[in-house]
Amino acid sequence: MASGKRATCAYGLLLAALLLAPWLGLYPVLAMKLLCFALFACAFNLLLGYTGLVSFGHAAFFGGAAYACGYAMKFLQLSPELGVLAGTAFGALLGLVFGALAIRRQGIYFAMITLALAQMFYFFCLQTPATGGEDGLQAVPRGDLFGVLPLASDHTMYYIVLLITAAAFLGIMRIVNSPFGQILRAIKENEPRAISLGYDADRFKLLAFVLSSALAGLAGALKTLVLGFATLTDVHWMMSGTVILMTLVGGMGTLSGPLVGALVIVALENKLGDAGNALAAMTGIGWFETLGESVSMVTGLIFVVCVLTFRRGIMGEILARWQGRATPQPAVPAVARAQPGAASPGQG
Amino acid sequence: MNMIASPALELRDLHAWYGESHILHGVDLTVNPGEVVTLLGRNGAGRTTTLRAIMGLVGARKGSVRVHGQETIGMKTHRIAPLGLGYCPEERAIFASLSCEENLLLPPQFACTPGAVGLREPMTLGEIYEMFPNLHERRKSQGTRMSGGEQQMLAVARILRTGASVLLLDEISEGLAPVIVQKLAKMIAMLRNRGYTIVMVEQNFRFAAPLADRFFVMEHGRIVEAFAAADLERKMPTLSALLGV
Amino acid sequence: MPDTDVILQTHGLTKAFKGFTAVSDVSLSVRRGSIHALIGPNGAGKTTCFNLLTKFHAPSSGSIHFNGTDITALRPAQIARMGVIRSFQISAVFPQLTVLENVRIALQRRLGTAWHFWRGKRSLSRLDARAMELLDAVGLAGFAHLGTAELAYGRKRALELATTLATDPELMLLDEPTQGMGHEDVETVTALIKRVSAGRTVLMVEHNMSVVSSIVDRITVLQRGAVLAEGTYDEISRNPQVREAYMGTTDEPEDRRAATAAPSAEAS
Amino acid sequence: MELFGVPLPALLSQLLLGLVNGSFYAILSLGLAVIFGLLNVINFAHGALFMLGAVLAWMGLNYLGLSYWLMLVLAPVIAGALGVVLERTMLRHLYRFDHLYGLLLTLGICLLIEGALRSVYGVSGLPYPTPEALSGVSHLGFMVLPNYRAWVVLASLAVCFATWFMIEKTRLGAYLRAGTENPRMVEAFGVNVPLLVTLTYAFGVGLAALAGVLAAPVMQVSPLMGQNLIITVFAVVVIGGMGSILGSIFTGLGLGVFEGITKVYYPEASATVVFVAMVCVLLVRPAGLFGKEK
Amino acid sequence: DANGVKIGVITDMSGSYADLSGKGSVLAAQMAVEEFGGKALGKPVTVLSADHQNKADIASSLARRWFDTDGVDMVIDFPNSSTALAVQEVARQKQKIDIVSTGGAMALTNQNCSPTGFHWAWDTYSVSYPLVRRLIEQGRNSWYYITVDYAFGQSLEADFRKAVDAGGGKNVGSTRHPLNASDFSSPVVAASASKAKVVVLANAGNDMINGVKAAGEFGLIKAGQTVITPSTFITDLKSLGLNAAQGLTYVDPFKLDLDGKSKDFVERYYKRHKAYPTHGQIGVYSGVLHYLKAVEAAKTVEGPAVAEKMRALPVSDAFVRNGKVRADGRMVHDMYLAQAKTPAESKGPWDLVKYIGTIPGDEAFRPLSASECPLVKK
Ligand SMILES: Nc1ncnc2c1ncn2[C@@H]1O[C@H](COP(=O)(O)OP(=O)(O)OP(=O)(O)O)[C@@H](O)[C@H]1O
Ligand SMILES: Nc1ncnc2c1ncn2[C@@H]1O[C@H](COP(=O)(O)OP(=O)(O)OP(=O)(O)O)[C@@H](O)[C@H]1O
Ligand SMILES: [Mg+2]
Ligand SMILES: [Mg+2]
Fold it and tell me: Do A293 and E57 touch (CB under 8 A)?
């Protein structure tokens, strides 16, 4: 990001706001949930924005880690930090398996393969007794951090979650700007060239995939810790759809986009009913009251509108305005429709 | 054929763009019915782009393109060919998933309605196979499995079947063994005798020189030189300066 | 000749795409320290040959030996790390990175930190000096901090060359390095190739016969995927088969210029 | 007689039933393949359109008294018309961009269609009777086979074969195949490729709706009926090789049968067997069974 | 509270359970409030409602926010068991009342029981054990299961098997199928081949409906097999149509025509909802009514105090007559053996069920002695 100063400023303000949030009346549990989803979206975006790979199976890492963390804490009586670690490790491991299978294909094929793998994992979660099936893994205790700091209080929990997400966010920033991140950018822009310079593109992408799934796992594990349960919703393919939507709405390939996207979508899921009621009260049109029951329709509508009109997402648009970039530079679409005949890999 | 009513092809101040890049900067070109003309120029001068612009295959185009007097600048690509244009692209565009014969049969034949100017009786498959015995031999094989020369013949033959009278041929001699190039030269001469109007884009000056009635030289998206075959000798020095020929 | 003199050797290299044989039974041997050209009509299989040598395509049959070791089974990146670096027929740069970063990507490999996702970007700045040196060598020093997408085509090719050089390759495979360049650029690049070829081996595809005749030591002519002839420029240009298949059958004094103009460099 | 501990008649009957399921897979994946082939769009809305077909059949019967047979023709036509609208107003604008956007757009459309029908008809489903003419059962010796299921297999085989014939053997099909390779050039020959694209999408959508009508009497007609089927069908398409017509037909039928066998020997895995098959195929042939390498 | 008593209906407005709970549940809650006079402790009673989208995280954060910032005193319904369990946890922490009506998870009153959590209409035990006993008495002693392959189905099948063993019957086999399977022909054919006298569809919702359709298609009931659908709501019968549903046997927690009070409720409900109430919906009515009575009795809305009164007071309304709330939170009441009518027997669009027996409450629900609920083992 070029306008570094301004960005630092903005992030500083955001952090300050988040630090004060519980005292400003923001509901801590909702805020924590938001942070978890923001982290999830950032993890997804790490993969999408910086390798151009669209995974349609990230729910598996998120939900798998949520279950792993819950299981570790509830049945193995591990402490929270170990539980979260277990979840993250599980996400990474699952990512390694998925990645190894899917990374050889690209674009839409990659998306479909990850989707199918995640669906397989969904059925596994549904059937295995360890997850409690439809009931979910319930009443996971928050426990005491490092055995000393009790997390039962929402405020304590909030600051811990904030700390972890902020650290993870910084970590993502670091990854993006690391030597490794440079190679990823190069691979994304011109894979054959990067290979010809001696970089095993598939392995770099696999590491990026694993990092992304580990971070998604971290988000899932934190979510279990915060809410005290893990359910099938977390591994359902719609969760993958939701995280794509968050990233799309916020702005693919922008660091801050997923944060904004997560905010918008979580707010939508939780507050659409209220908003509908308010609208109904304001306009007197009773139909708005039913808005709360149509979350999936509204979600669908957002997908359609986003894809058709503002593919750069909210932050993408804002950044484009700020930096006065004339040419649109959407993150994913590396190329327009492949030109027939120019597809031989040697000529990329 | 269609008396001197209107030129077969008339470009006026044609501009063309690929995305942001402005490639043609006002091309003016007139081709009369039954004429064979050649566009010469260095790599990247914009000759291919001129042909593509005529067919509406560029990003955006402006100016005027008249085919037998009819303005086509606002037309959709698929409406242009039926006016009697046949385009044989540089890259040949033989379809891999179609057999040789399917490739040949692919372009729709234009309905030869009585009033339609610019169309002529389409060649039958038999006539084409007679003209290109190689194609008959390989008619069942996959399009891209044919040799470069065969593909080139197929690409040309393909547009003869449609009934087009104006042929736009882009570098048809390119990458072919001289024997085949000679064959193609004979074919062009024959088509000319049959009254086809032909616009050739050629790097291979030696191939084009004996065939064309008129020559145009392009540079940076403009026509910078135009002369008739009779003036060829006289123009040679200019040409070698322009083309390094 | 002793084996150590041969840096790259292929035996019966063949590539078939769904029944269409693009490269058939090519046995090539490139001498260490030479500039070797691969020429032939469009579609003769030159680029495909490069793709095979660097394993961008897997050969249908045949073997490739580099410095005496069999590299037929290796992955493309492994081959690159052994010192065989290729350029591409259509200019291959990283358009959204700056010119300097482009070269740095290539230099990064030697640093050994390519996998370090926890390290800061600043750790890369010590490569800048070397990168500037390379850019200077191809005349791009003044553009170092420009976005690569903004470069003119000829400069992109120069940048590509600099990037290739940055990996310090033992064998460089250049696919039409002068394609799309103006006359002056062609001369500069030709001179540059000649200069950097000191101490390395260059295998290049080139349609421009003036380039070929001025710097190339040895030529292999491909036609329809198979080797048609091999020899020095003079041998090749006298070979009747080559003249028929590639250079044309025109009169003696004209053939150089004709060949220069004849084949279009435009790829598909 | 037994085969690995399962009585042969039971095995045979499960194979036959697998074939019925396979027929649905085949029609659905065929539609996906046709659309993907020419538009390069993964039509996520396919499941919703399948459901729409079934709901249309129900609406026809309940509101207008139109018979199953009439709806078998009408529903695909109506859905196809919807497809025309979707392609003209939305999908068309995305071809220039990454294929991913097509997937996301159709996902959004899928949510919209499902949501809309759900708010009208609820979720528990609508009953649809088996048409009179097909309501009986046939005694095959090893099992009783409802006539309707036999009809499903025959009808879908016929449709699949007709589609295959149309695409591989006719002029129109030649346009389609050529259009997949190089649409601009086909256009330069004077073929209205945009129209062709629209019609192809409509046709693919029509196939989905047809499958929906076929399914109406055997599955509960409900707004959610396509949701779970579609991801399985995606896996079928990946296994078959994306965009391959014959691949999707054979893989669809084959996987139905394979699933049937799994139900006999290890029913717990029947939900995942398709995905396991997908992983295995991908490990050996990344492009799918019938797919072309890159 | 300044604003009076607030009751929150958390339910599924748009997902798979929307028809058997959803808006109908909200209406039922409102009818209970109206019946109670609209006021409790002298202040108005308000009913809030929200869609949990079948997501536990949404349900629990909603409940949390309602409890913490909106002053909601009690939440009710939860057709989906993961949301029910998640909200019960929140309610336990916040010491607020939660009543699960439409959901049936045993865990609610078992290992996850809560001092302020109640389970109202039914649970998986109550629709399996009593039924087995009755049928075996009638000589239907060989059982086959078509089970949805996840916790719900598995535990349902296990319950049945135990009951069949205990009653001296024989379990002859089972087939598992995935959740939301579209095709039931294979399990049905297997069930038919087994010649078992009873075929249990241990699944719910669309799976159950599709299973029944396939059973009809392959002629199971015609061949004399009894098909049991434990988790049947009246809306399921409606959407199946009696042609397909006729002869299905199940346990219904609610008898539509029990007496005038019930009939009257159903009639009033039908006028406003255009559909008969499911037992989940009328359970919401009953739960709200009982809660309000307890509030009046406790003279406070404090959760623990109200919970105590809820346990102490008998339950009697249009839903149940002689109900009582046990220590583990289970509301115990009579259940009814029910069968789907044949099309000929049916006299109206909603005349779908005939009741063929009554199961006394004590027999219908799992005895406290078998409970793992810590509240019981004091
Ligand atoms: N699709 C495209 N997008 C952007 N620029 C293009 C495109 N195609 C061609 N150009 C540019 O347009 C210019 C003219 O190209 P054109 O193909 O018309 O040249 P030409 O005279 O036919 O030369 P050649 O001998 O290479 O065929 C060139 O600079 C080329 O780089
Ligand atoms: N991936 C592929 N699949 C199928 N055929 C291919 C593929 N790549 C190349 N070919 C074919 O192989 C032949 C050789 O192509 P190649 O690119 O090697 O030619 P070239 O000698 O480099 O030509 P040019 O001088 O035009 O660059 C051509 O006919 C081409 O169509
Ligand atoms: Mg050209
Ligand atoms: Mg080449």
Answer: no
Q: Which of E378 and C103 is assigned the larger pLDDT?
A: C103
Structural tokens at position C92: 């291959």
Alpha-carbon span A272 to A244, nearest angstrom = 19
Q: What 3-state class would DSSP assign to B233? A: helix
Measured between alpha carbons, how far is C121 from D166 in angstroms, rounded to an integer?
Answer: 57
Contacts of E237 (CB under 8 A, 6+ apart): E245, E248, E340, E352, E353
Nearest to D111 by CA among D31, D209, D224, D24: D224
Find which of A109, A122, A335, A339 to mutate to test the D interface (most D CBs within 10 Å of its CB).
A109
Residue E140's φ and ψ, nearest 5 degrees, are: -90, 90
Tell me the C-alpha distance between E296 and E286, whole Å: 16
CA E226 to chain CA centroid, Å, is 22
Q: Which residue has the higher pLDDT, C158 or A218?
A: A218
Token pair 């779970």: residue: D228
- pLDDT band for A326, please (50, 70, 90 cuts): very low
Task: Give the residue from E65, E58, E62, E66 showing the smallest Cα distance to E82.
Answer: E58
The DSSP result for C92-114, as a single string, is ---TTSBHHHHHHHHHHHHHT-T
Prediction ipTM score: 0.79
Distance, in Å, from the CA atom of A42 to the CA atom of A168, rounded to the nearest integer, reads: 9
Is E85 in Cβ contact with A138 (below 8 Å)?
Answer: yes
Average pLDDT, chain E: 88
Name the phi and psi angles at D120, rounded to 5: -90, -45
Please name the residue that has the structure tokens 């020997």.
D265
Q: How many CB pairs under 8 A join A and D?
A: 128
Tokens of E185: 């022909």
Phi-psi category of residue E329: left, alpha or beta, with phi > 0 → left and psi -120 to 50 → alpha: left
Q: Which residue stretches of chain B are H helix?
A: 47-55, 77-80, 100-105, 125-131, 133-137, 148-160, 178-193, 205-208, 232-243
Query: Is residue D1 pLDDT above 70, yes or no?
Result: no
Q: Would the CB atoms of A138 and E89 count as touching at under 8 Å?
A: yes
Count CB-CB contacts under 10 A for residue A267. Answer: 14
Q: The sheet that has B166-170: what strands, in order across it?
A: B85-88, B166-170, B197-201, B36-41, B214-219, B222-228
Report the candidate in C222, C219, C213 with the shortest Cα–Cα distance to residue C257: C213
Name the most confidently modeled range: B127-141, D263-277, E163-177.
E163-177
Residue A247 near residue A38 (C-beta atoms within 8 A): no
Query: Would an 8 Å CB–CB cutoff place B152 in contact with chain D?
Result: no
Give the 3-state secondary structure of residue A167: helix
- Residues 6 or more apart whose CB falls under 8 angstroms from that of C246 comprise C39, C40, C41, C221, C223, C228, C259, C263
**CB neighbours of residue A217 within 10 Å:** 34
User: How does DSSP classify residue C123?
Assistant: G
Task: State the average pLDDT over residues E244-272.
Answer: 90
> Which ligand lies nearest to the CA atom of residue A344 in the structure?
2
In this prediction the pTM is: 0.82
What does the pLDDT read at residue E284?
A: 94
Q: Which residues of D touch E208 (CB under 8 A)?
A: none
The beta-carbon neighbor of A347 closest among C96, C108, C267 is C267
Q: Which of A139, C176, E365, B46 has the alpha carbon at shortest distance from C193? A: C176
